[in-house]
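Student: Hello, beginner here. Can you help me understand the protein record under this note? Any guidance would be welcome.
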Amino acid sequence: MMPRARRFPFSLLALSLASAFAGSAAAQQAPSKGDGAVDLDTVIVTGTRAKGRTVAASLSPIDQLSVRDLEGTGSSELATALARLLPSLNFPRPSVTDATDSVRPAQLRGLSPDQTLVLVNGKRRHTTSILNSSGTQGRGSAPVDLNAIPLSAVERIEVLRDGAAAQYGSDAIAGVINIVLKRGAEGGGVEASYGKYKEGDGIQNKQSVNFGVPLSDRGWLRVSAEKREQNSTNRALPDYRNPLEPLYGQVSQRFGDPDSEQSSVFLNGQLTINDDVEAYVFGNYASRDTHAAGFYRPALDSRNIRAIYPNGYLPIEASNSLDQSLVAGLRGTTDGGWRWDVSVNHGTNRYRLNIENSLNTSLGAATPTRFFDGELENTQTLINADFAKEYVLGWLAGPLTVAWGAESRNEKYAISAGDPDSYFGTGAQVFSGFRPADAGTHKRDSKALYLNLEADITKKFSGSVALRGENYSDFGDATSAKLAGRYAVTPALAVRGTASNGFRAPSLVQQYYSTTTTSFISSVPYDVRTFAVSDPVARQLGAEKLKAEKSNNFSLGLLFQPSKVFTTSIDAYQIDVKDRIALSENLTGVAVRNFLAANGYPNTDGGRYFTNAIDTRTRGIDLVSTYRLDLASRGRVDLSLGYNYNTTDITHIAANPAILAQNGLAVQRVGRAEVGRITKGSPNDKLTLGADYAWNAWGLRGQLTRYGEFTAYHASNPALDQTFSASWVLDVAASYKLKQWTFTAGVDNLTDKYPDRLTAATTPNTVLPYSQSSPFGFNGRFTYVKAGYSW
């Protein structure tokens, strides 16, 4: 049954407005350049193609974060740093979730991770090749791997919290994250850090270098390199499930962060050709090796051979994620005043999976214990041509920016089969290898044209309109439009609003990914096959050709800056998504098992596939402000507060296709578990309170974050749902500058806060004590030190 829609708390909007005008210090936007409160006069490049558009004059809500802000969080991962700075971003850290342990997805405004577009230097970033197929937030998505980008390469990040499909194309339903790289030949730095958790595990080491070199007197090349190592953590409980087991009462499972090692390099360069033309290039190489634990196989389990593992075994997924990109282009200005930019953009992500410390029971005592499971690869290649020019028209208060352009994009997704031993019979335990029937290469291409108009129409009113049309070879046309406006009521107060429609094309991963793996449903293992939607067996289970998601976005906000030391913005939004793509429930039962056996899949307990079966409505509020307190000779304090309230409701669930009943299969494609993940699986609200104190060579930084409640739905019994209480997490750090050196010591989660434990009623017979959806993980207190030298 579809849950009843919740009313949006517009009383909260009124309360927030009142608090803003009362002068409360606020903001998720920490100081963008380390020199005080947010500079609203900073020029932005995201969400606009007009020259000189600033944060204050932006027609849409936008955040700007510097590398100082990101590094001040204490995290060595970009996604974790963003989650601590942005109340609208959710980044849980699930464990024992197959490939998701290696590439964890982040959510903006409570929507799917793949509904946020990621750009680097304004160019579309490629997505990963893996599918988040386990029961976690972001299930069914294949988003960009943010953690493949080293922090040392970042100059700033601009986050557009608004629908932008009309400006950038597919995926920009929740918003846009634009990562702007460091530039120039001057300056650089090296840094080393070390940290570990209170329990003594999870040791992290990071070394990075960033420097620039001149290319004669006409250009520069910026190099950023980083090496990051992370040891595993374990918060599993002793196993008391079977007293006959040889390891009874011992910790046999591993539940926490995986062992991980990543090396990455990012280049960014520019060369002046002549007075009107310059060439540019940027790209990256990142390789991450991850050793993630699967579910422990007890000694007496049918999935064990005691002659090989007399005490049972913990299978390990040993993966390598290789992430590469290269963007090259020319840009300049014509004699007629047109700014132009032509580029080629190529990016690829390859994921190779080996299974270690495992076996294949179908091979008996002759089974190997290490398997190659196969390889996934996702590639995109784009050619862009962008043009913009300002026209001075007497009836406008400012120039009219006319921007237009064209894009051609080619995408390819490939699955390569594993060794025969990995998929023979029952297959390798924890993750059966990709079979020859799964393997294949799938391609599509798309073409797009866009037009943007933007101008200061009067001295107080600015407006813009964007139109974009696209044609995809696999599903047809998509057209998007956006209107945005800003009105300055007074020099200190402005109103802004947007209305747009958008789309997200079904990814090739969602259309063609297929494999068989072990899923645990109510603590019971099931071998479940993920079918490509075009598979004839999937069609008999109710699968249909995927359509593009369609969205309607509306936002209304206020920007208030009574002085240069105090700024506040508040934006309310509504996002409706029709034909939202989701991975169906695990369709299981005796009838399904018999059906699959009769159609060539013996020993398979269930199936699942992607479907456009749901519509959703997301409503929320973002409150963002900063306040600077000048203490004269005693330094200054930058205070901040940020708040996001967000709800998602399912407004429609499509009825089962008739073919399910015809085949005698009484299953539900979208059930309680998926409904819970979408509507209640992430916190409804998040509050951040920050203080940054600077005095001479000393710096002190603290952030208190409140993560709101979230709920895990039981698959069939509402009485077994569990709601996890709100949690306060405190991060603190102190730094000291000695000439060109900076030394930092910090503690994340100072109070050693853990989420609520899973109850025995909701999750019986488990050794996993915490929810996979915890927005701040479940590792406890983390202490670290850093030393950096800059020039």
Summary: The chain is about 10% helix and 45% strand. Confidence is low (pLDDT under 50) at residues 1-38. The domain at 37-790 is CATH 2.40.170.20 (Maltoporin; Chain A).
